[in-house]
Write a sequence for this structure.
């Protein structure tokens, strides 16, 4: 599985021959790319409807959309998407097969209104667990699994559900504070998830979320977690192995 962070919460995930783009927002200071520089993905995954997560979604409207039914409806009207998983999107707790990838939608504790001339309810905010095998009760040591936590606060579901049952090898967690978890809560999330690899995201984009990722590294170490923290350079691929 290949992971590429494009700044903020935008990730390109390749599983086998399948390309997934999560929360496309390229107007951030970390990336040097424009949406036109990115190969057309097979799937676009949207955790929620805030502008810093869907601003560039319309540039990839030929892809299949993976989002809540409410957000799918909005994106069909606003951005011209014509195809969504299941024809209508998915919802929390569900797993869908996206060619070579299995995508499970999990909860995120956040808000999800879209503030336009008419306020839009985009459904529940979410995170995504992406794996090359279908999640089952039986642990599969050969599988490779990545968890994108979306915009979330610290929540016990990470410790009680996502970590022990979906078993991610790696997690991208927001640590910008103010709108999401800050470094110390994000570090607790990493510990609860029991992952081998941790990536900070959703930081340094705007003044309220400016953070030093070295503090995140220090906080992760302070939990006693064995996770290796990777402060990625944007647009550089990272190979994740089981």
């Amino acid at each position: 599985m290949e992971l590429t962070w494009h700044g903020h919460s935008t990730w390109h995930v390749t599983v086998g021959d399948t390309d997934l783009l999560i929360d496309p927002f390229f107007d951030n200071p970390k990336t040097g790319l424009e949406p036109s520089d990115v190969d057309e993905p097979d799937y676009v995954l949207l955790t929620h409807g805030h502008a810093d997560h869907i601003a560039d979604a319309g540039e990839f409207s030929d892809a299949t959309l993976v989002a809540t039914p409410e957000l799918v409806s909005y994106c069909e009207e606003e951005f011209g998407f014509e195809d969504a998983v299941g024809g209508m999107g998915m919802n929390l707790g569900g797993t869908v097969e996206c060619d070579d990838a299995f995508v499970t939608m999990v909860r995120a504790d956040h808000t999800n209104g879209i503030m336009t001339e008419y306020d839009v309810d985009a459904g529940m905010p979410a995170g995504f667990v992406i794996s090359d095998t279908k999640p089952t009760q039986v642990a599969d040591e050969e599988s490779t699994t990545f968890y994108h936590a979306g915009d979330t606060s610290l929540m016990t579901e990470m410790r009680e559900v996502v970590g022990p049952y979906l078993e991610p090898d790696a997690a991208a967690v927001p640590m910008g504070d103010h709108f999401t978890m800050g470094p110390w809560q994000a570090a607790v999330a990493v510990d609860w998830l029991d992952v081998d690899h941790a990536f900070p995201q959703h930081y340094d984009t705007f003044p309220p979320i400016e953070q030093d990722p070295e503090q995140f590294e220090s906080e992760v170490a302070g939990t006693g977690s064995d996770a290796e923290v990777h402060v990625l350079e944007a647009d550089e691929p990272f190979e994740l192995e089981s």
About this structure: The chain has a mean pLDDT of 96. The chain has five helices and 15 strands. The longest strand covers residues 101-107.
